[in-house]
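Most newcomers find our protein records easier to grasp once they have seen one. Each record describes a single protein and holds just a pair of labelled lines. A learned vocabulary of local backbone shapes supplies the integers on the structure line. Nothing more is needed to start thinking about how sequence determines fold. The record below serves as our worked example for the rest of this section.
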Amino acid sequence: MNDITGICPQEDVLLETFTVMENIEYFCGLKMMSKDEIETFSNDVLDRLSIQDKKNSFVNTLSGGQKRKLQLLIALSGNVRFILLDEPSSGMDPTARKDTWDLIKSFRNDKIMILTTHYMDEAEALGDRIGIMSKGQLKVCGSSLFLKNKYGLGILLEVSMKDKS
């Protein structure tokens, strides 16, 4: 069965009184994945996201970053072709963000992903095309290289100090 959409919303949609594995089994079961598919997929992704040791922990004991990882795992599960990721690495430390980005990159083949973020480094690392919105309006869209050529690399701030002696 082909699922149409995977969603990683900004708000937690996890079952707080279930364990990590029970959440995975429940949501992957809704996507008609077999027990073997769920076990293989979850072991691989839990390991890649460095939360294998949380497998039997209740969701309400997880940190915010660990909950984001679990929601991402659920969004990527099954045979989804279209994935919406709303700030998938928010609340994560730099190492966890890098692991998350690597996982997202590994799932990009033959899928359409739309990702929202406030971080240009995340957009650049994960996006083939970047759209910039302001006040609900799309202002510009293009590759990272196109945006850099059109708008420059950012703001350069120079600070010089005079010696008061």
Remarks:
- The helical segments are 20-30, 35-48, 64-76, 94-106, 120-126, 144-151.
